[in-house]
Amino acid sequence: MKNHVAELARDFEHQDLRESKLYELFCNYCVTSKHYFGRFDPKIVTTDEDDASIDGVAIIVDGDLVTTLDDAEEAFRTHKTNLTVDVIITQVKSGEQFKKDEISNFNLGLNDYLSLDPKLPNGELNSDSIEILKIVFANLKKVRNRRPNAHIYYCTSGTYSAEREIKACFEIIKRSVEETELFFNVTVKPLGRGEILKLYAALTEKNEAKLKLLDYFGMPQMPGIPQSYVAVVNAKKYVDELLVDDDGNLRQSVFEENVRSFLGNTNDVNSAIQATLNSPEKRNLFSVLNNGITIVAPELTLTANTREIHLTNYQIINGCQTSSTLYENRALLTESVNVIVKFVESSDNEGAGDIIAATNSQSDIPKEAFFGLRDKAKLVQKYFLAQNQNISTDNQIHFERRQSEYRGRGYQVTRIFDVREVARCYAAMFLDIPHNSARYVNAIFAANDTKLFEETDHESYYYAAALTLYKYQTLINGRKINAHNYVKVRWHIIQLFKWFCHGKMDTPQPNAKKAEQYAMKLIELLNSEDKAYIKVFEKCQKIIDLVGFPSDDVLKRGRFTQDIMAAAEKRVQRKER
Q1: Closest CA to 242 of 314, 175, 186, 308
Q2: Hey, which of 174-188, 275-289, 348-362 has the most confident mean pLDDT?
Q3: Separation between Cα atoms, residue 82 and residue 88, nearest integer Å
Q4: Separation of alpha carbons 297 and 311, rounded Å
Q5: C-alpha distances in angstroms, 215 versus 218, 227, 283, 342, 376?
Q6: Which of 56, 172, 413, 522 could make an S-S bridge to 464, C-beta 3.0–4.6 Å?
Q7: What are 331-385's pLDDT values in tens digits?
Q8: Percent helix / strand / coil, the chain, rounded to 5
Q9: Radius of gyration of the chain (CA)
């Protein structure tokens, strides 16, 4: 256990924290990752102190981890009326035992917290999450089942043996949370050392499955696709073998490369699928009436004589709606219900990306979901790889163009930037809209004046922007130059950095011939052995001090960005004179 905790601390650069706090981060990372599959720092879901006996809170709306009021409000500005909302609450004890008095104290704090008007002391995370919950409850018409789900975990480093009194304590917690009538489904789980380690292992282990094919035919070998098959499979066995996890829940991780999450049973298409399954006459025709499912895997093996296919690290890239509806209606799946599945082996990221785009192009999917598939995004990723070949590992960062493609590579999590994070860095630094980067992340893709991964952009700008944020983030994590006090304005800090590095306000356009030369000066400074970039960041912080630290609302407004730019221009012009 200690090795895994140390590994997480190293990945997120939190080694300076005390051992008990690191264990809280570890447990919160494990349980939150069970419900949320994006990249996140466990610190954002962990309380600073033992607030009301609660050590962690995470709220997930429609697959996104919501951490601010703006995030919550933006999440519900949608036409969707079937948003899944999960609330994860933890209590973490580093001791070896499950103690009745400590569990009862957790129940007291939990009841106080869920009153939404707590009397016990609550820190920033608890207070902010309560306000987010109020927004959720104000939008129940858009929430699936008209109520969120609650997942409550009590973690220790010992072994849970379900002794009568201890088991009763957890049953009392479940009953008291259910009696609030705030949640549709309530789960309360005691997690000992073994259960926590199992969750952590699930984050890095290979995703494997075997499935019997009723019939199939192979397709000719194609560039980047050594083998592929179109097969008929039994729907129930498909659900049992590929979709259900050890707890009987839908294995959401297999949909990470699907550009759209489950839209619910009220969606027109899904309602039609459900109606087919409910009809004794039509369900036998399911394989003919349904468009089928596409699965991509870097490794697949078909044993011809047994008609059994073995999949490793597979992803369902098309058919999330069909798969989820089959899971929801698995009681209706008889031996006569079959489904068409296309199995494609592709270890080539570009080839897999093309398949994802092609198989989803007919669906009503937001365009931002495809940014990582753009040719320019592929070139940006290659630029990152090229830069890493020429520098030490201490300075390397990685662009994860497709979700989880670097999982298990051994890279520090803080060095990996996904499409959204790279876009936020670029928009803040070179499009001069850090106020949008500070907002709900989808705002970056939705803004009309935002141009991302354009064909004429120079890749160096994307790399330089990400590297700048990474270097500043290391100062924040290390609590150097008081950078941790400026974490909320980090997007404005990286915007300022380019001007103070060059000593002038003029910045070449992303498609200009001078763009790479301009970016290389930033990159060379950021990779300098003497860490001269630290003094530049200090100048950036002084501009924030000069203008005045903004409120959360002001931070996300263009006016604050204009004030920052004006203050920077005066300072740069003064230096030029």
Answers
A1: 314
A2: 174-188
A3: 19
A4: 7
A5: 11, 16, 19, 12, 40
A6: 522
A7: 999 999 999 999 999 865 555 556 655 555 444 444 444 566 677 888 899 999 9
A8: 50, 15, 35
A9: 25
